[in-house]
């Protein structure tokens, strides 16, 4: 018995010191090459291309009116979609994780729908619903409400695409935590709101933040669905990713990469926040 | 406060968890709900506590129908099986919770809350742990925090679900004696659920033995142990040997070793291992020939496992003196004789 233990300990020590056999070295090498070629290199290229014509042009590209407008629109879309989907995600996960009711699994798959539908199809659904030829098109036209090729359409498409993020993050977390603390709070005389604010929310706050950050990253970066409903009206209905595409198609590479670098920066910040939250979430509980 | 349970029925889908239960619990009593898992004891506790609703029947606490009173106004302290402490709050905040969530006009002031929490911490002997989080406490400490939290709302009734279930044996014994003293000290009506007969018999004033959603017997620990009403109660409250026999003129006849056929059997005899004796010669007609299979002499008594020629096991507990006197060894051929038995007629155990 003792012999086995020491053997295992030795094996563990060897593993900790690093790869030894050719197979181990080979695997590490393959992983490293993949990492560099597919993740690190593109990131470096984005920033180096963006700055290839100098810092002056870089700032000019991201501060010109059309770019500023695209940034503004992206912030508006995310600014509406993320809070609403956070509220929805909280409500849906609370209902799904803490209660039993008919149609529960149906609701669960409905929440997953945006994950399984191609974003372009999602965009088309909104065109079919709200476009001039669409289902509600006539009524909207009569009331002079523009949805498609306008800001509301972009917000709607963004909301649809980012719909599951917060809920999906919270449902397993809440299921795992169970109902016990809520029941205890109730037996101690807490009202529904007090239970939510004082017991449920503090237990899931890191999960909420995690979901919000992923939701935000997707909301700002969404291309397909927004592209279909936006109509690409420059300075009006272009979000940042759409703006990048237009610049690229017009061979303004430095400007395109300058705007793309903003999105890449967002990705890096997201990543950093995500790691921080994971670390805090673990050490907190 | 007295609790009156009338004709309570609870179903989960097709499963009947409780069927037509009646029970009265007097003011200040400490009552144990004892039964195997699935017997409905926890469901009954949760209904008394208002965490679950019954389909039929009612629970009357202090003369008022508990079903119509909101759980917030019921003043029932509930201690959960796995404590359900608020993991993101300190021990202090956990205990203060029930006071802080009161409506503004009933809520005590900050100093008052602090004083109450510290009094409770003193009561459960955890004064130094106020700033800790539940994750930093041992099982026994968490249990006592859960108790203090439930007591903070000054409950009229204290309900405990398997209060010692998740603790190791030593802590368990200490804590249940402590709970008994605490109950006597603070004078409220307490009901606790357990599947451990030793725990129920040691702590409770009265024991309610439950099985399959029904009450088998209600009585003092002495009652249920020495005068079990049904074979189930007898078997559940301790190790049991069962002998099959028949009734002749109202008295049992056991033909040693030879079990009666299904038709002939009209009675079963239940004998606890410590009420059996072992002899080298046949002592009476009730003696059963058997062979010693296993001996465990480590402990206050000696546990001997016998096997009849028909392959049935018989457990016997002897005093150390008697064991030495008999000079038993593995393989010794002996006779097992019941010294005192409980008889159940066939009607009693046909379920």
Secondary structure: elements and pairs:
The complex is a heterodimer of chains A (285) and B (351).
Chain A: H1 2-17, H2 22-50, H3 55-63, H4 65-98, H5 104-116, H6 119-130, H7 137-142, H8 151-162, H9 164-177, H10 180-187, H11 192-221, H12 224-230, H13 240-249, H14 253-284
Helix pairs in contact in A: 2-14, 3-14, 4-8, 4-9, 4-11, 4-13, 6-8, 6-12, 8-11, 8-12, 9-11, 10-11, 11-14, 13-14
Chain B: E1 3-12, E2 15-25, E3 30-34, H1 41-48, E4 56-61, E5 64-65, E6 76-79, H2 91-100, H3 110-123, H4 139-151, E7 157-161, H5 169-186, E8 189-194, H6 197-203, E9 206-211, E10 214-219, H7 221-226, H8 231-236, E11 241-248, E12 251-253, E13 267-271, E14 276-279, E15 288-296, E16 301-307, E17 313-319, H9 320-326, E18 333-338, E19 342-345, H10 346-349
Parallel strand pairs in B: 3-8, 3-9, 6-7, 7-8
Antiparallel strand pairs in B: 1-2, 1-4, 4-5, 9-10, 11-12, 11-13, 13-19, 14-18, 15-16, 15-18, 16-17
Descriptive keywords:
heterodimer; A: 285 residues; mainly alpha; globular; B: alpha+beta; Rossmann fold; OB fold (Dihydrolipoamide Acetyltransferase, E2P); 2 domains; five-stranded antiparallel β-sheet; 19 strands
